[in-house]
Design goal:
Length: 229
């Protein structure tokens, strides 16, 4: 199953660079009078900073993975129809919604980071203390790159993969799908059972009666996908 493993590495790099820039200007900010601080903070825009550091490129990279998934699923089709085009348009909209969620999370991160920084300055904390707090909460492996956030991102993409395969074959009720993925010590019982009984595979109607779901698979962060055969 394809994934978004590049996200964590790329976003960690962006977060590290942003915090590095903040550290360079923080010592100058903490010595300003309150009026000057207000002026300075009205000019600070961490969303713009994240954009300059490459977030749009990362978002386009993620979009490319979604686009590739649609093409991969569509590649199993024979002739395309008007309904196929409609299904692709629906999947593209679903991808856009996922990407919008990611963008919203980055905007929230930028605003929270600015708030935490401003709060530290207003309370008279040292630049070293403020920086330590920002790093502990918003640095590498935190916030946008926490294990929970990365898992949520990969889960959304995995659900999109399963959805795209089933959606594109809506007009072919006899199409068979195989449940594909690992069967190891961390595989859920529902997934193991499905892998064991599938034989040649299942139709979409048969999938509706299984322990696993069509779009959901075995649940959160499921590693399995539906492959048309």
């Amino acid at each position: 199953m394809a994934d978004l493993n590049f996200y964590e590495k790329d976003m960690n790099k962006i977060q590290k660079q942003l915090l590095g820039k903040i550290e360079k200007v923080l010592s100058g900010l903490v010595v300003l009078d309150e009026q000057s601080i207000l002026v300075a903070f009205n000019q600070i825009n961490f969303v713009d900073e994240l954009s300059a550091l490459g977030f749009p490129a990362l978002l386009n990279k993620i979009k490319g993975s979604y686009d590739d998934q649609i093409l991969t699923s569509a590649g199993f089709l024979g002739a395309t129809t008007k309904n196929t085009a409609t299904a692709v348009a629906s999947l593209e909209l679903l991808a856009t919604l996922d990407l919008t969620t990611i963008s919203s999370g980055v905007t929230r991160y930028a605003n929270e980071l600015k708030t935490a920084m401003f709060r530290g300055i207003l309370t008279g904390s040292s630049s070293k203390s403020i920086m330590a707090g920002l790093t502990n909460t918003y640095g590498i492996g935190k916030a946008l790159t926490s294990s929970q956030q990365v898992a949520l991102l990969n889960d959304s993409f995995a659900r999109f993969q399963r959805t795209s395969a089933l959606k594109l074959f809506e007009d072919e009720p006899n199409q068979i799908f195989r449940y594909s993925g690992p069967n190891d010590e961390v595989t859920r019982p529902a997934c193991s059972n499905t892998l064991a009984i599938q034989g040649k595979g299942f139709t979409a109607e048969e999938i509706d009666g299984l322990e696993v779901g069509g779009a959901d698979g075995g649940g959160f962060n499921c590693r399995h996908e539906w492959i048309p055969v």
